[in-house]
Amino acid sequence: MGKVVVITGSGRGIGKATALAFAKEGYSVVTNDKYAKPAEDVAKEIIEKGGTAYPIRADISNPAEVDQLITGAVEKFGRIDVLVNNAGIQNPKEFLEMSVEEWKSVIDVNLTGTFLCSQRAARCMAKQGGGLIINISSVHQVIPRPLYAHYAASKGGVNLLTETMALELSDKNIRVNAIAPGAIETDMNKDIMADIKKKRELLSMIPMHRMGKPEEIADMAVFLASDKAKYVTGATFFVDGGLTLYPSFCIHCKQAMI
Ligand SMILES: NC(=O)c1ccc[n+]([C@@H]2O[C@H](COP(=O)([O-])OP(=O)(O)OC[C@H]3O[C@@H](n4cnc5c(N)ncnc54)[C@H](O)[C@@H]3O)[C@@H](O)[C@H]2O)c1
């Protein structure tokens, strides 16, 4: 039987591209989303292309639903070789106006959701003799971003969670790595992409002068799951066209660019 990957938030965007890329590599793919239809549609697309996939709806910030996701994946395919913690949300808000509910909504998905899925999947991986966890972080794990205190804090947390899990789980033959995307062409950035001025300003800060494509994040995930990366753990790979080489705050217009 082929290898099995679980990808959270794979109903669209980076998660969907990653699901399609792993399916192309011969993996059985468990698609997941907070909403049933997107997860089902991506699974259907994989199956129509000759691959193997199974959709499981679950909100990854809910411990009981994460249990259903991981148990469901193991019941369906017998094991989990790779978990990609991709589901994430943004909700820009001025720090002084941010309610505790708004703070928690982002932390609960981006950080607590990553913890919950990783812990549950790692318990299965430990029993089966090993595995790989890939966290989709962000350049904002190292670059502060005005209006995104909760988002940046959640991704900074994912950074140290990645490193701590790598330390604790290496004895169990479980590798843990992260990918930190820059500005990627997904619905999460549709407002920037629709605003010519904002997009031009953003591109001026990216050394490669273009946004990234979801498939370019997926390619890094596939690489990390390959034998070529078998000695890699506890590392974060920035896939950002060089964005982290620039500050996120435009010193000319005094505005956040990304
Ligand atoms: N797009 C970018 O420029 C960019 C940059 C850096 C990091 N990232 C990170 O990459 C990941 C994917 O981003 P994207 O641009 O594809 O986003 P997206 O908004 O296009 O897709 C995210 C998917 O996750 C799902 N989701 C949200 N909350 C969920 C939950 N609680 N449980 C299960 N599914 C949930 C959504 O329904 C959606 O289908 C996120 O973690 C994001 O923070 C994105």
Description:
Helix 1 crosses helix 8 (214-225), helix 3 packs parallel to helix 4 and helix 4 (100-128) runs parallel beside helix 5 (149-169). The chain has a single domain (4-187, 211-245), classed as 3-Layer(aba) Sandwich (Rossmann fold), CATH 3.40.50. The protein is built from eight helices and seven strands; from the N terminus they run E-H-E-H-E-H-E-H-E-H-E-H-H-H-E. The protein has helices at 13-24, 36-48, 63-77, 100-128, 149-169, 190-194, 196-204, 214-225, and strands at residues 4-7, 28-33, 52-57, 82-85, 131-136, 174-181, 236-239. The protein is globular and about 55 Å long. With 258 residues, the protein is an alpha/beta fold. The mean pLDDT is 95. The chain has a seven-stranded parallel β-sheet, sandwiched between helices. Nicotinamide-adenine-dinucleotide binds next to helix 1, strand 2 and helix 4.
